[in-house]
Amino acid sequence: MTKKHRLSHLRPRPSADQPEAYPSPEERQRIVARRDQLMRELIHATIVTPNDHTKIDRLIARYGADEVQTVAASLRGPHPPFINESPYLYRDYRQTFARFGGDRPFLTKKEYETLMWEFSKLLAVREFKEVLRRPPGERETELRDLLLKDAFSWPDIMPPAPPPHPPDYAAPPAGHYDDPVQTLLTWGPDRDERRYADYARYGPWRRAVSDLLRMALDPGLLNGWPGESAGWASLHALELLGHIGDAAAGPPLFALLDCENDWLSDRLPDVWGQMGRGAEGFLWECLDDRQQPAEKREVALAGLQAIALKYPARRPPITEGLIARLQAAPVEEQEVNAYLVHVLDEIHAPEARAAIRAAFEAGKVDTTIIGPEDME
Questions:
Q1: Angle at the Cα of 275 (from 300 to 91), degrees rounded to 5?
Q2: Closest CA to 296 of 332, 269, 334, 314
Q3: Ramachandran angles phi, psi of 102, nearest 5°
Q4: Of 61, 167, 246, 247, which residue has the fewest beta carbons closer than 10 angstroms?
Q5: Distances 53 to 5, 36, 37, 60 between C-alpha atoms, Å
Q6: Cα 359 to Cα 339: distance, rounded to the nearest angstrom
Q7: What is the pLDDT of residues 135-152, one digit of tens each?
């Protein structure tokens, strides 16, 4: 597990209004290259030598405070979850495509992951295995554009380019929804925690749980065109289910893990976490069912973690249950055991130290996922 380093000493800058004019394509290319170099230097200054704050001052003097803030914001996060990160990464691509996709082809999740792996290998060879730094080759440049890898630099320098719905894009027909749920079809790609919390307090929304669940799992919306607002309605329905907190809606949501182009299931632990104690029963049941896929059991673990962190009164019994399961876990389940250890670490459970140490000594834990040196 890689612990996250935070740039807490750099104050976040308020988001800027959309500029009246954007740089020319040539100037944008220069700004992106400069920000790319700044990111390398900022990573070195804050992670490799985190206690040398004079390096930040030198970067501000060289690049300017606004540029350092722009790049620092992308390093601060948000970051993918440790458990089940692929939906997060694909949703990030999907959201970027919705804003800047233009005439680029829209990638399925499998295509995105395949091309991302190819891009990462090309980048790694050029950055780390070659003695002399050289500019990116033609294929790396092509993939960088197709995967929208420079998008962290774009909001203030690149005009939005929403992708038009191509005539050959196919998705199942979406279901029909009445008020108030149909309004979610217009909200677009941005999450808004305050709006979710406000709406969830009102009776019409609390009585609409069945429609929200149907929308969250609607294949026509889950596979909807990301450049259109309706293609994001399932996200908003899922978030509202969490804020409403009806745990009866929790178990059906496991179905999101089975979606071919899954871009939502990383949100499940937080949604279940908001449901609180009522969600614990089905999460323990899933975790204890060794016939379930490891991925599903690991997401259930993350849900228990979310409950323990959100509701401190639930932390002791959840910790006790996790310790008991780690002690009884077979050696053959090293992957699930590794994530179990991770969750105990994340909920700050010193009472679990002896059980964790014993699990490592018994060879129960996949140390490529988490090792003793990764523990807090």
A1: 60
A2: 269
A3: 55, -130
A4: 167
A5: 14, 20, 19, 11
A6: 12
A7: 889 999 999 999 999 998
Query: Encoding tokens for residue 45?
Result: 């200054």
Nearest residue to 295 via CA among 250, 256, 349, 323: 256
Q: Write the DSSP string, 298-360.
A: HHHHHHHHHHHHH-GGGHHHHHHHHHHHHHH--GGGHHHHHHHHHHHHHTT-GGGHHHHHHHH
Q: Is the pTM of this model over 0.85?
A: yes
What is the pLDDT at residue 164?
Answer: 96
CB atoms within 10 A of CB 302: 23
Q: d(Cα 96, Cα 7) in Å, to the nearest integer?
A: 24
**pLDDT given at position 18:** 61
Contacts of 110 (CB under 8 A, 6+ apart): 260
Task: Say if residue 104's pLDDT is above 50.
Answer: yes
Q: Say what the pLDDT of residue 2 is.
A: 42
Burial grade of 168 (CB within 10 A; 0-12, 13-18, 19 or more): exposed
Summarize pLDDT for 16-65 with one digit per residue, the tens.
Answer: 456 668 999 999 999 999 998 999 899 888 877 777 778 888 999 999 99
- The pLDDT score that the predictor gives to residue 11 is 40
Using a 10 angstrom Cβ sphere, with 0-12 exposed, 13-18 middle and 19 or more buried, the burial of residue 327 is: middle
Compute the half-sphere exposure of residue 209: CA atoms within 13 Å on the CB side of its CA: 17
Structure tokens at 182: 């149909």
How many CA within 13 A on the CB side of residue 348? 2
* Per-residue confidence (pLDDT) for residue 17, from 0 to 100: 56
Residue 185, Ramachandran bin (φ over 0: left; ψ between -120 and 50: alpha; else beta): alpha
Helices (H), the chain: 25-43, 54-63, 65-76, 86-100, 109-124, 138-146, 193-200, 203-206, 209-216, 219-222, 233-244, 268-275, 277-288, 294-310, 315-328, 334-346, 353-361
* 256 DSSP 8-state letter: G
Chain segment 108-121, per-residue pLDDT in tens: 999 999 999 999 99
